[in-house]
Design goal:
With 290 residues, the chain is α+β, with helices and mostly antiparallel strands.
Length: 290
């Protein structure tokens, strides 16, 4: 029986059994997409990333799967893949370029951490506050955005951003049926501290069969875009901000971010984090289905 190599790593943490667990698979260039999907379902983590030979000038190519679908881009798989590939001697450390569905993305890798530059920032139209609060099981007085309206934003993968009171986070949850009705596949519910430029966040992804994610790099990138658009971070220059996530899941995570803006619009966002290896092995290649 043929096998491929894998590692399990914890991303956005400096200690094992915290952060966001990730399966990183190597040597899978002969596998079809449906075989990769089966492996991702077997690992049953929020995401599994396949590190493949480059095709468009990058250092390597990444294909990223949840247990149910392939994503064009995601943050913790990108950070985890880069650090793990460098540690295994397949790249870097140094300045790498990841090929993925969001394009060619720079990743700066050290021994145990990486900084990812997201894709081109995007910002969608404002969404009704009431419907989003209902989606996550919160009441009208839990909203803490003031004049800032919830909206989708991202740097390769969009999330809806909903600012709430700090005490409301523990009560939040995502209703998959309501998410489908609102066409919301991913939502970041967060409490913002303007003085420290820190967000306490929970991220729910009912549209991709991930009830809650303990650390979401793509959402952390999009948060910077949303904060600039709503005047909560400067509209010119580069600002730093921090995201704490995963506390309610007993997997505390730390995401350090920057966003660069001009004229009130974000142009570039980055997210940084540590990666800790916890397991490695071989897994059987599933049968071809397509």
């Amino acid at each position: 029986m043929s096998t491929v190599a894998y590692e399990i790593v914890d991303v956005f943490t400096d200690r094992p059994y915290a952060g966001n667990p990730l399966a990183v698979v190597f040597g899978a260039e002969a596998l079809a997409g449906d075989q990769m999907q089966l492996l991702a379902r077997e690992f049953n983590l929020s995401e599994t990333v396949f590190v493949l030979p480059p095709e468009a000038g990058g250092t390597y190519r990444a294909r990223i799967f949840t247990p149910e679908t392939e994503l064009p881009f995601a943050g913790h798989p990108s950070i985890g893949a880069a650090v793990t590939a460098a540690r295994r001697g397949l790249a870097g450390p140094g300045e790498l370029v990841q090929e993925c569905g969001a394009g060619l993305l720079p990743v700066s890798v050290t021994d145990a951490s990486a900084t990812l530059t997201g894709g081109a920032p995007t910002l969608g139209a404002a969404l009704p506050v009431g419907g989003l609060l209902d989606l996550v099981g919160l009441a009208d007085d839990d909203f803490a955005g003031g004049a800032a309206q919830p909206a989708p934003a991202g740097c390769g993968l969009e999330f809806v951003f909903l600012p709430v009171r700090r005490d409301a986070l523990a009560r939040a949850w995502a209703d998959a049926e309501r998410g489908r009705a609102l066409k919301v596949t991913g939502i970041s519910v967060f409490a913002w501290d303007a003085g420290t430029r820190t967000a306490q966040a929970r991220v729910f992804c009912p549209g991709v069969s991930v009830p809650e994610d303990p650390a979401t790099g793509s959402a952390a990138l999009g948060l910077g875009v949303w904060l600039v658009a709503n005047g909560l971070l400067p509209g010119d220059g580069t600002s730093s901000y921090t995201v704490h996530q995963g506390v309610e899941m007993h997997r505390p995570s730390l995401l350090r971010c920057t966003v660069t803006a001009a004229g009130g619009s974000a142009s570039v966002a980055t997210v940084s984090g540590h990666v800790v290896p916890v397991a490695r092995g071989e897994i059987a290649v599933p049968p071809f289905i397509g």
